[in-house]
């Protein structure tokens, strides 16, 4: 009887469960109330579920899907953890502008993956809720991603379209001039306009006119726009807008620093708290947080690596299921071992993602494929790389193909193997250039092309040291 | 007559196998790239999540072939849930034509009317809207970006728009980049690289043992009623003997030591199978040896074989000048060497100049710079483009080469 039950369990695993509708996820997000976690309360909340939560069953397709969904990039959390200070700075700035009916500009900078755009979404929602509670007129919100603009000056066109102020205006005037005229005289409109310009550095031109004019719009006497620029460079305002300082309208800079180890760990635990089971070993999450914080501080990286670690566990379960199927067939053939089947299955239980799954996911993401590729190159291409390394070991930075061929022939003679012809040598260099291992210049004549190395000498040495043939050459 | 029929059928079967990726690359083991890629994409389809994968490997290692096989399998398993958009970096490397091509393929897939006059803005907004609609309809769009490193030049608007749209909750898409550059993800701009999930599949060339298994897989005939039983058994026995032969293995190693990609091996097989003897209907070792020597060509040696005696003499004089640490020379210095070396049977100067120009046209020698176009041919610096070993082999291979010239070359070497 347990054999039949085991077979049913194994058969149900490969069948794909019904797909969860993305529409439910869309509906769930605005309905959820944003909860502000205090620092003390967060500690207490984190301690209790870790003790109480049962272990999950990775064989259950539904639980597996929900665990992956919690860690996916597109699942926006209800509250942005570890960015409360930055959000409050931006929110207070916007509140002041709306309350006093005056224009202002703000610049938000930080590396990719540090939560800038997500925080801006939260600030918009909070600002609208606050204005509604205070009884102030609701500001218009305009979001522009500058990568979608064909021309840099299209941002003014979008600004005018956002204002819905096309009546009674001259059609022949430029959008920038229309905005400048509108902000130079008093109008009956009371609404402020919040403009969030994402990826601001796409507006940089040679004369920087567009970026300069955009920030200058906030200095007009009757201007009603609150401008928030988002980009990656910290010194964008200083480097590309030096005149704003002298004109006393330099934007306030809010810096989103790269996530630290504790912040990454906190964000991961916050996402996994919504899941009713414990999926990861604590050491595995710690390893992921430390590694990602040491390299880039990018939260997208951390989420992708955790997803890969779950897939490592999933692949292990699939492989174990195949082995278990084979073992069960052997067990059913000889009934003397019938009693040992439940014990055999218990040993194979998989419960959490451990540090070795996480280590494999990390190495899969961060390891360069150069060493594997060098080790699998054909023999003469390895000799070409070896001779090029010896050739460039001195002060030389590049050489022509004919010189490298002489070096290659020398290495072949010292190892007593016949060298390839010049045409094959040229083809091999082209293959290595395609893969990015060497750099091959352009020339009409083959032998006169310039060659320079693109990978480190240590990589070649490390890749080829295991082969006995190359121990004399290196 | 029937004897000839099944022999021709055998050749056609082997040829069609060599040209069929399905026969070569389908590998059901869980460690193969075929299974890994299929698992990644099918889990994206069934679990309604987005993914971006990069297929890296040298040219000829089967990246596109394996991907097409996986897409065919998935279109059979989920016929209504998958759309495939194909882009190529050589054709659509600028963002405007890439977005236009995506809009055209989306319109064709969903029976919509495609407008050629649509602008860049319209096409990009249309793509984002279609991704949203397909996500709500539980349909996955697979974007295949061939020559991915060519999309990474310029401002990378296409990559940013695709990967940014995949961050939203409603879209369901898989972006597959195919590239032969190992550092393709390093070419990405930093915000595109942040949005790209670093999943890489490495396509490495097969080892020598795997190449031999592939040979057996390709060249053995099936034992079924389409071929006479004794013919098929004898054919397979001969193929087995050829593959286990030591001389054949040396030839195969020599061939694969230069380039061990699958396409290179298939080219070798195609040359060998095309020369199969139709009288006997069996493959032999000579077929493979002739294929090897025909692929191993030396075009400069063939060029030297057709040179005249005067042209060979000029080349030998240039080689002598090169040995004297005189890398650059012109026609006058070559003539001076020619007069001092060859004391008899000399040709006139204008005849030598014509032979000199022939060598330039054959690209055995070339001008070192292009700036002196107005100068006469006699005064422009030239450079020899063949090595001593090549010249030596060329002299020996030339039937009409006088022995004195060969001795002169031997003494010089």
From TrEMBL, chain A:
<dbReference type="InterPro" id="IPR050311">
    <property type="entry name" value="ORC1/CDC6"/>
</dbReference>
<dbReference type="InterPro" id="IPR027417">
    <property type="entry name" value="P-loop_NTPase"/>
</dbReference>
<dbReference type="Pfam" id="PF09079">
    <property type="entry name" value="WHD_Cdc6"/>
</dbReference>
<dbReference type="InterPro" id="IPR054425">
    <property type="entry name" value="Cdc6_ORC1-like_ATPase_lid"/>
</dbReference>
<dbReference type="InterPro" id="IPR015163">
    <property type="entry name" value="Cdc6_C"/>
</dbReference>
<dbReference type="GO" id="GO:0016887">
    <property type="term" value="F:ATP hydrolysis activity"/>
</dbReference>
<keyword id="KW-0131">Cell cycle</keyword>
<keyword id="KW-0132">Cell division</keyword>
<dbReference type="GO" id="GO:0051301">
    <property type="term" value="P:cell division"/>
</dbReference>
<dbReference type="GO" id="GO:0005634">
    <property type="term" value="C:nucleus"/>
</dbReference>
<dbReference type="GO" id="GO:0003688">
    <property type="term" value="F:DNA replication origin binding"/>
</dbReference>
<comment type="similarity">
    <text>Belongs to the CDC6/cdc18 family.</text>
</comment>
<feature type="domain" description="Cdc6 C-terminal">
    <location>
        <begin position="385"/>
        <end position="464"/>
    </location>
</feature>
<feature type="region of interest" description="Disordered">
    <location>
        <begin position="1"/>
        <end position="59"/>
    </location>
</feature>
<dbReference type="Pfam" id="PF22606">
    <property type="entry name" value="Cdc6-ORC-like_ATPase_lid"/>
</dbReference>
<keyword id="KW-0235">DNA replication</keyword>
<dbReference type="GO" id="GO:0033314">
    <property type="term" value="P:mitotic DNA replication checkpoint signaling"/>
</dbReference>
<dbReference type="Pfam" id="PF13401">
    <property type="entry name" value="AAA_22"/>
</dbReference>
<dbReference type="InterPro" id="IPR049945">
    <property type="entry name" value="AAA_22"/>
</dbReference>
<dbReference type="InterPro" id="IPR036388">
    <property type="entry name" value="WH-like_DNA-bd_sf"/>
</dbReference>
<dbReference type="InterPro" id="IPR036390">
    <property type="entry name" value="WH_DNA-bd_sf"/>
</dbReference>
<dbReference type="InterPro" id="IPR016314">
    <property type="entry name" value="Cdc6/18"/>
</dbReference>
UniProtKB/TrEMBL annotation, chain B:
<feature type="domain" description="Origin recognition complex subunit 4 C-terminal">
    <location>
        <begin position="214"/>
        <end position="394"/>
    </location>
</feature>
<keyword id="KW-0539">Nucleus</keyword>
<dbReference type="InterPro" id="IPR032705">
    <property type="entry name" value="ORC4_C"/>
</dbReference>
<dbReference type="GO" id="GO:0003688">
    <property type="term" value="F:DNA replication origin binding"/>
</dbReference>
<dbReference type="GO" id="GO:0005524">
    <property type="term" value="F:ATP binding"/>
</dbReference>
<keyword id="KW-0547">Nucleotide-binding</keyword>
<dbReference type="Pfam" id="PF14629">
    <property type="entry name" value="ORC4_C"/>
</dbReference>
<keyword id="KW-0235">DNA replication</keyword>
<dbReference type="InterPro" id="IPR027417">
    <property type="entry name" value="P-loop_NTPase"/>
</dbReference>
<dbReference type="InterPro" id="IPR016527">
    <property type="entry name" value="ORC4"/>
</dbReference>
<keyword id="KW-0067">ATP-binding</keyword>
<comment type="similarity">
    <text>Belongs to the ORC4 family.</text>
</comment>
<dbReference type="GO" id="GO:0016887">
    <property type="term" value="F:ATP hydrolysis activity"/>
</dbReference>
<dbReference type="GO" id="GO:0006270">
    <property type="term" value="P:DNA replication initiation"/>
</dbReference>
<dbReference type="GO" id="GO:0005664">
    <property type="term" value="C:nuclear origin of replication recognition complex"/>
</dbReference>
<dbReference type="InterPro" id="IPR003959">
    <property type="entry name" value="ATPase_AAA_core"/>
</dbReference>
<comment type="function">
    <text>Component of the origin recognition complex (ORC) that binds origins of replication. DNA-binding is ATP-dependent. The specific DNA sequences that define origins of replication have not been identified yet. ORC is required to assemble the pre-replication complex necessary to initiate DNA replication.</text>
</comment>
<keyword id="KW-0238">DNA-binding</keyword>
<protein>
    <recommendedName>
        <fullName>Origin of replication complex subunit 4</fullName>
    </recommendedName>
</protein>
<dbReference type="Pfam" id="PF00004">
    <property type="entry name" value="AAA"/>
</dbReference>
<feature type="domain" description="ATPase AAA-type core">
    <location>
        <begin position="53"/>
        <end position="199"/>
    </location>
</feature>
